[in-house]
């Protein structure tokens, strides 16, 4: 019968012999990797020593101190070669086959760090900073898109960057994500010493994509604005309102969209909302919005406010950056100024303002129509009749409003009997 101490002594002797063989193999490094069989002999010999120690301590109680000292000395020697062992064989694959206990430290050696991994701490730091920046950009983009009812493309613009950020961030910051990313790198055959750099590269690409999307938000806002303007032109107020609100969600300080949204509210007779939108636009220096502000004031019969708005617009129109639209804008402002003056019993001033408008474009009806009323207020019936006729001559077939009806009535009332 073999006693536990005898078994332990024999295991220690085999362990010593296995390390002697391992030492001989280590001498041939780095030209020749350590043989797998030699490594397995050393590690399994250490398994036997561990089993013998446990059995002896359980049955006998005490292990001779000189034996323990020998085991400690041999372990120190094995630890010195741990990095060489892990470099020569894939211990992870061996562990899958042998399934050693987690406290069997000799199966868990790590390979000696590759010199190319020296800067991994920097790549990791930059990767974490990049993920943080990606998260900040994503939150800002989300905040803009989620204030509107997103369509298919808007949903894609939200979900695709979010999925990419979560995937990349999970692969860097969470254990499960790191394991999945490591498995992916293994399948692709990417060397370990390039993986931190690759993680940072993926983060950098993601940041560039998110930054591009963020920088393109003003362009997307302009696209929505053009779509809203087109819908407004054909009278589709619901679509126009939706598209313009989308534009302003992405670029709240876009005065063109504010002005167009004011026109939508004006057509819906939502004058308070229209005036708010026009005010935002004029505060941003968008001169055409003064026409809207004076229109709303006229509709609410605030004629003094309408006059002020028209004059403010005329003061700024000379600095307007669209020469092609300047004449039309100036015409509208003079018409509104004349209308406001007429309603405040300033017929002569109104006539002067309206004649300024006619000088810009004599073939538009509105200024003639209002001028006829101003001339009538100045007791100029013949001039009023001639101007009223011009009003009807230049009016489009579908242009029936208060002023054309007034001109028609004036001609009827002054017709010879």
Question: Could you explain the architecture of this structure?
Answer:
The model has no long low-confidence stretch (mean pLDDT 84). This protein has helices at residues 4-26, 36-59, 65-80, 82-88, 91-98, 120-145, 152-173, 175-188, 195-215, 217-233, 237-250, 255-267, 271-283, 289-299, 303-316, 323-343, 347-360, 365-377, 381-394, 402-413. It has 417 residues and is mainly α. The protein is rod-shaped and about 135 Å long.
Give the secondary structure arrangement, pairings included:
Elements: H1 4-26, H2 36-59, H3 65-80, H4 82-88, H5 91-98, H6 120-145, H7 152-173, H8 175-188, H9 195-215, H10 217-233, H11 237-250, H12 255-267, H13 271-283, H14 289-299, H15 303-316, H16 323-343, H17 347-360, H18 365-377, H19 381-394, H20 402-413
Protein traits:
20 helices, 417 residues, 76% helix
Largest sheet: none
Structural class: mainly alpha
Residues in helices, as a percent range: over 70%
Distance from N terminus to C terminus (CA atoms, Å) equals: 147 Å
* Strands, count: 0
Taken as a percent bin, the fraction of beta residues is under 5%
Short description:
The protein contains 20 helices and no strands. The chain has 417 residues and is mostly helical.
